[in-house]
Sequence to fold (264 residues):
Amino acid sequence: MADRMAGKVAIVTGGSRGIGFGITLLLAQEGGKVVFTDVNQERGEAAESDLRRDGLDVSFLQSDTSRQDCAEAMAEAAIARHGRIDVLCPNAAIYPETRLEDTSEEEWDAVCAVNLKGPFLVSKACLAQMKKQGGGRIIVTSSITGPRVSSPGHGHYAATKAGLMGFVRTAALEWAPYQITVNAVEPGNILTEGMKLHRDQAFIDSQEAAVPLGRLGTPLDIARAVLFLASDEATYITGQSIVVDGGQILPEMATAVLPQVDRP
Ligand SMILES: NC(=O)c1ccc[n+]([C@@H]2O[C@H](COP(=O)([O-])OP(=O)(O)OC[C@H]3O[C@@H](n4cnc5c(N)ncnc54)[C@H](O)[C@@H]3O)[C@@H](O)[C@H]2O)c1
Fold:
């Protein structure tokens, strides 16, 4: 076990599976004390047991990131348990795939509530403690979808992820005087449980073929970028985002004419 998070307290939303679980695991393996949340209680408790069995200092809290009362209770629970909040990773999101003309007002609002309002609420809830401590790190999970590219069916999702970058830049400016940095990671296509549930195999195959590095990403690929932004190495970085996509958004030409990766 390494120690890049030794003595640090982190909160990760949507941490019971996928990228959030990967972030929780890596920050805890690096010596952090991690409080992770999820709406899904059963999955959260199971993840907590698995991680504790490996000797990691993690605790699960059932919480809906789109609700202000939950956001405040989350920050209070972390402070009650560990006395401080050094790192906040607003990561929970939903990604239904619906063309714009079929998207209801309710679905639009639900995606915005979790993906865009959620990171605002949890960041605001942790602000007072970070100010009191004299600093903190907020690392939002955005996406390449929205800030950089999009595809049919991702209208609401793309709008929230692009919107998050506006939030990141503004929060970075407003909270810089308190030594709180606010950054984002923009994952490409990461093979998670959510991806398998919401996207068909044809989509997954097409995305894999479009990645110059020849594979979809893993939660660990994203967690490593989050760890960097949470570590002492990133002290002077704020208002930025790191694209972690295996080169997916680079090609100027159709990927079919790019050099092919030899797959094992
Ligand atoms: N998987 C990808 O390819 C990909 C690509 C780009 C960005 N992302 C982003 O990464 C993050 C995680 O995605 P993932 O693929 O791991 O998703 P996932 O569906 O596998 O996991 C997300 C977790 O968040 C939880 N969650 C959902 N709504 C919540 C709420 N209101 N409050 C608290 N928890 C809630 C879910 O229960 C789930 O456990 C999201 O922000 C997503 O937009 C994922």
